[in-house]
Design a protein that fits this description.
Elements: E1 23-24, E2 31-32, E3 38-42, E4 48-50, E5 61-63, H1 67-75, H2 78-83, H3 93-114, E6 118-120, H4 122-131, E7 134-139, H5 145-162, E8 170-172, H6 176-183, E9 190-194, H7 197-212
Parallel strand pairs: 7-8
Antiparallel strand pairs: 1-2, 3-4, 3-5, 6-9, 7-9
Helix pairs in contact: 1-3, 3-7, 4-5
Length: about 230
């Protein structure tokens, strides 16, 4: 879990600052905007900590948001080189980051639900897709094929009917058991995110988790605001 520590020494001169607005991945050496990368810092005891919100103080280093990149940074001891100090790195850091991304996504789903921007139920989701209200749809990994098919048909119908550049994206990220454990009564089989800051935040975090796992995006998600 993320460690909030005011005791980490502050240092504005990050190792990987590549330009005024960008950062550089310590694995690929490719630069990108901070919101497109994963930030890591060292806690006071030297333990490497994921900083998904990019708010922890101290010298930070950045990694491309892919599991293989994080695993490579661990294997090649790139965190110590980037932070210019001895560090302690959990061999399972890649798994820890994925759990944090999942937790962050479910938390945003709950916030969006409270804001009326995340709804569940096959009929409600299908209606939202056909009306053009849905930003993205979500299915549990063990959702019945028939339910998924009906919503897929709605996605295709909306796409063909509007001439949009791409269909409403569909995510298959978590099983029903995982959703039950993480979201309790807010768990779902079929759901969708609706327009609004919280709904956009759900899609943004789902896309990040999908990217981290190495799953190819189904459609373009351009136009979402940074959360």
């Amino acid at each position: 879990m993320t460690i909030q520590s005011p005791d980490v020494e502050k240092d504005e001169d990050d190792f990987d600052l590549s330009d005024v607005n960008g950062r550089m991945c310590i694995v690929t050496r490719e630069s990108g905007a901070p919101e497109t990368l994963l930030r890591f810092v060292a806690a006071p005891d030297g333990t490497i900590v994921p900083d998904l919100k990019r708010t922890l103080p101290g010298r930070g280093c950045w990694v491309s948001p892919r599991r293989e990149a994080v695993d490579k940074a661990v294997a090649k001891k790139l965190f110590a080189r980037a932070l210019k100090r001895e560090v302690k790195v959990d061999p399972a850091l890649g798994s820890t980051v994925e759990r944090l991304l999942i937790s962050q996504l479910c938390g945003m789903m709950n916030l969006a639900r409270k804001a009326g921007q995340f709804i569940s139920g096959s009929a409600k989701v299908e209606a939202a897709v056909r009306s053009g209200e849905a930003l993205a749809v979500f299915h549990s990994l063990d959702a019945a094929a028939d339910g998924v098919r009906k919503i897929d048909q709605a996605r295709k119908a909306w796409h063909l009917g509007t001439g949009a550049d791409a269909e409403v994206p569909a995510f298959h990220l978590l099983s029903g058991a995982e959703l039950d454990e993480l979201m309790g009564q807010n768990a779902f089989i079929h759901a969708c995110a609706l327009a609004g800051q919280a709904g956009e935040g759900v899609v943004k975090r789902a896309t990040l988790l999908e990217t981290y796992r190495g799953q190819a995006p189904q459609v373009s998600r351009a136009g979402l605001k940074s959360q």
